[in-house]
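Our platform keeps sequence and structure together, in a single record for each protein. Such a record has a labelled line for the sequence and another for the backbone structure tokens. This encoding replaces a full spatial description with a residue-level series of whole-number codes. Below, we set out a record of this kind in full and without editing:
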Amino acid sequence: MRRLRTHWIVWSSLVIVVGTGAIISSLSSSPTITSIELVPNASVNVSVFRPLPDAIRLSMEFERHKGQKRPELGEHTYRGDWRQTGFLDFPNPGAPIKLLVRGEGKEVVYEAMPAGSYGTTIGRTLIPFVDDENTNRFQWPPDLTLRHNLPAGYSDFVITVQEVGSQLKGEKVDIIIEPPVTFKTVAPRYGYIWWFIFWPLYALPLSVYGLVLLWGSIRHSPNIPVERDASPQSGSRPSP
């Protein structure tokens, strides 16, 4: 019984670890999405939760009809070698978009890069704006020290459209605050949480382990004695 009790302690500890990891993984792999209309001074409030400190990563998603290219969103084809220049130079950077993000005691202007992902929607990454007086160039890699830092817990932000090109003015888009954990990427401090993406694979053997322990506990449980009826049976004579 002592050995069985030890197994129950081990099983319970593993269930707590996997359960906690699954919850934190779910919170860390879910993007925060809000919509905004691309008109100057339009703003939206958004709240972001992080179980651990992180840095903000922003992108935008635009509607796309099947096969639609939308050249006004730019093309992610650049000239030159950014390793030497420190900039990506795009012949078609797309219509400009700048968002002012305020929160956590900081104000940062983010600008939209040319379209970099195509699917049911078209995505544009947002990076901190660096004024080099050249709308075709984007600092690369971006200066990560300019981004907002997210502490553990909830953070509230106000996102305001500061500038938008005429081709996109009035369009409603989704602003996405990227999660720290995805299947392909993981933010600093979140490395071990990435493994809990596969929590169902851990839950299956734990379930089998638990059933085996339950069967063992039932098998080794002491038998409850059954009291016999002390009353005389019908037809028998009581002893004198």
Remarks:
- The chain has two domains: 1-30+180-220, 32-178.
- Residues 181 and 221 are 45 Å apart (CA to CA).
- The mean pLDDT is 89.
